[in-house]
Amino acid sequence: MKLYQAKVTVTLRKSILDVQGKTVEHALHSLHMPALSNVRIGKHIELSVHAPDKDRAFELADDACKKLLTNPVMEDYSIEIFEPSTNGVPA
Amino acid sequence: MKVGVVTFPGSNCDADARYASQLIGAEVVQLWHKDPSIPSDLDLVILPGGFSFGDYLRTGAIARFSPIMPSVVEFANRGGLVVGICNGFQILCETGLLPGALIRNENLSFICKDVHLRIENTQTAFTSAAEQNVLRIPIAHGDGRYTASPEVIDELERTGRVLFRYVNEGGEQTPNANPNGSMNDIAGIINERGNVMGMMPHPERAIEPLLGSDDGMAVFASMAAYVNALSETTA
To answer: Which of A14, A31, B150, B224 could form a Cys-Cys staple with B24, CB 3.0–4.6 A?
Structure first.
């Protein structure tokens, strides 16, 4: 067993208006940064995962996303799995 | 009539829901989220408003896994009346007893004010005794924007399952009358079978003229009428 690190990114589904993102985008534009657009605000969740290999670690994190961490009605998510020794570089 | 009101950590409208239930002559049972089951002779379960588990992660996301919830789902599947108000509505959506989700208000603000609701279907257990078409009832939420896929919205509309819609005082849908950006101005819905209802406004906070409105009694009186009619047929 190894202790993997999982990083989960949760955002509102593209079809749903992200009002926080829109508000921040307006603020950026009023700060004279017109080059920036399509601001999306989401959640970042970090987990440690006990698993024999990276695939199993992904499965366990994916299961957690489906059961609790995200709501598929309104959210999309992505998962990155890291080996603890790689200092944040994907395994 | 016997009503169970579930208290979660962070519920803050449970006492109001119990009080409103007493006004319709119900025997009221206080339920705790860790109860492994609910009494077998309940007629109605209310999931009250509040901020269960601090709204952490998502509203209602953690409450739906409370130990009492499997028996609430089973009760609903047997045809028992289940009502979710505000946070209770959010919990019912997370549980899957109602479709869709409640997300952050369009203006990002917590809104606490009276709104007007038009009853869109009077042939339900929650609206049949309403004497008026438009109710004035308060809302108090930050995450009340009803959202669902176009297919779900279409089905709700076609099958008369949109129960309450935000309107102006005259009963008309206008952009200003929708406080939170809900799709199709939806404030409350029912499930396919018609025994599970969720609404963001708080009928239990509008039950006496002293509170500014007693329009919320329409919902409680309807449920009492439904339960009483049911017990007469089975007696």
So the answer is: B224
Question: Alpha-carbon distance B83 to B46, whole Å?
Answer: 5
Residue type at position B218: A
Tell me the per-residue pLDDT of A55-67, one tens digit each, with 9 for 90 and over: 999 999 999 999 9
Which chain B residues are within 8 Å of A71, Cβ to Cβ?
A: 58, 61, 94, 101
Q: What is the ipTM of this complex?
A: 0.84
**What's the mean per-residue pLDDT of chain B?**
97
Catalytic residues of B: 86, 202, 204
DSSP tag of B208: B
| Pairing of the two strands B186-190 and B162-167 | antiparallel
A49 and chain B: CB distance < 8 Å anywhere? no
Contact call for residues A26 and A35 (beta carbons, < 8 A):
no
Rama region for A37: left / alpha / beta (φ>0; ψ in -120 to 50; rest):
beta
User: Considering only CA atoms, which of B123, B132, B115 is closest in space to residue B217?
Assistant: B132
* Number of residues that this document lists for chain B: 235
* Cα–Cα distance, B141 to B146 (Å, whole number): 12
Rounded to an integer, what is the distance from CA B157 to the centroid of its chain? 18
- Give CA–CA dist A31/A17, Å, rounded: 22
Contact call for A69 and B107, based on CB within 8 A:
no
Q: What is the C-alpha end-to-end distance of chain B, expressed in Å?
A: 13
